[in-house]
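Quick question, first post here. What does this chain look like in 3D?
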Amino acid sequence: MSSVKDEIEKANKEAVERMMDSEPVWVDVGIAREKLPEMKDYLLLHAGPPITWEKASGPMRGAILGAILYEEWADTPEEAEKLVTSGQVVLEPTHIHNAVGPMAGIISPRMPVYEVYDKKYGNKTYSNFNEGIGKVLRYGAYSKEVIDRLRWIESTVAPILQATIREIVKDRGGISLKSIIAQALQMGDDCHNRYNAATSLLLKEVTPYMIDSGFDKQTIREVYSFLAGNNFTTLNLGMAAAKAMTLAAHKIKYSTIVTVMSRNGTETGIW
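> Answer (accepted):
Ran it through. Tokens below.
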């Protein structure tokens, strides 16, 4: 009869093998309300474990307010705060929806999201789009320029990338993110705070399809410039890929390997 120690070692070996065997592939772009499990109006997803407004850090609060303004549930930050404190807007962790997002990690119902599919184990994971650097929602900014950029991403960037990735899926099944990450690591990226090579590799894959997406040249040029000018473009896809890989090892009996570790600016949670 095997001991508990033996069972743990066996389970941990299986967990590592499943993560390494996972095949995360970018397969679609869609709206969070339509893509994420149980996503609905007046629900905001955030990074880390569950949190209340009272415990939320300044950047997290700012991101929550910005998302409410972006959704047009309120006209002012003051009105937005009342929606949260009254319980009309509900906060839930991204991870229970198989989703991820950098920093505050806010995902609201109308936001466009990437969909990643694990070809090996069948799991689907999601992430929001990267806004660039500077004044951005994930750092807690919610000025007019931040909201305008989010709406431009929704109305312009997302449709082009949706058309692009759907053609790629028809042609060759999607884009292997594991392959891009592996190459990028060899080219000097850490695939956490540096995604320069990964973003270049991704653009190499998508640009020919963007050109043939049917959108006008000026719009394609603007979207390409936005993606190429932001070295963190691939960060969110990389996070969704990592989520898919760790999800493959989730809930294995006896395994002691942590498959989720995430913070919300106040507390850190493991799962």
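The mean pLDDT is 97.
The beta strands are 24-31, 43-46, 90-93, 99-100, 112-118, 124-128, 175-176, 261-263, 268-270.
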